[in-house]
Amino acid sequence: MDWSFEPQNESDAFLVSGRLLNMKANSINPFLSPNLRAEAKGAVEELYFTFSGDEVSASGDMKMKYRDFKFVILQKDRTGVNKLLTAIGNIFTNDGSNADPKGYRYGTIYAQRDPTKSFFNYLWQNVKEGVISTLTGNGEKD
User: Fold this and answer.
1) Which of 14, 23, 64, 76 is deepest in the core (most CB within 10 A)?
2) How many C-beta atoms surround the C-beta of residue 90 within 10 A?
3) Which of 142, 75, 135, 73 is CA-nearest to residue 105?
4) Is the Cβ–Cβ distance between 52 and 15 less than 8 Å?
5) What is the pLDDT of residue 16?
6) 48-53: average pLDDT
7) Is the separation of the CB atoms in 40 and 20 below 8 Å?
8) CA angle, residues 27, 32, 34, in degrees to nearest 5
9) CA nearest to 48, candidates 84, 73, 20, 89
């Protein structure tokens, strides 16, 4: 991940870009389970993102190449699978088969910052929004 900003800029403007290559989706489950009450299955072959923003909001874009990606929504106590929410969620999640000729799906990023939380939470919110948009949107490049 590359993160650039000017410390003297009063608007807290920043630019973030990053990539993730060859990741088994279940490797992020220790993060997803407590933060989103979800687990992931499948593989992310490539993920690229770029977003810019300030202390209020950020926007950008993302592209992913992935296989057999599915989310499992956990019960509130995280001890089992919420089968109904998992089934509904996966209706809207593309498994990666509906991609461009190079295998990519595209998404957009937009997030507003919660000023009561850390900047790293803000970074995560942007990446999360991009992943959701890529997995559930039309997947086409704007």
Assistant:
1) 64
2) 16
3) 135
4) yes
5) 96
6) 97
7) no
8) 125
9) 20
pLDDT in tens, 59-113: 999 999 998 888 888 988 878 888 988 888 777 777 777 789 999 999 999 999 9
Q: Where are the domains of the chain?
A: 2-136
Neighbours of 125 (CB within 10 A): 18
d(CA 70, CA 65): 14
Q: What is the mean pLDDT of residues 115-129?
A: 92
- Would you say 114 and 75 are in contact if contact means Cβ atoms under 8 Å apart? no
The C-alpha R_g of the chain, in whole angstroms, comes to 16
Q: Which residue has the tokens 């590359």?
A: 2
Q: What residue has token string 């220790």?
A: 30
Name residues whose C-beta falls within 8 Å of residue 116's C-beta, 6 or more positions apart in sequence.
none
User: Is the Cβ–Cβ distance between 79 and 39 less than 8 Å?
Assistant: no
Q: Which two tokens stand for residue 9?
A: 């800029």
Contacts with 11 (C-beta within 8 Å, 6 or more apart), sequence order:
54, 55
How is residue 56 written in tokens? 């209020």
Q: What's the half-sphere exposure (Cβ side, CA atoms, 13 Å) at 139?
A: 19
pLDDT (mean) for 21-32: 89
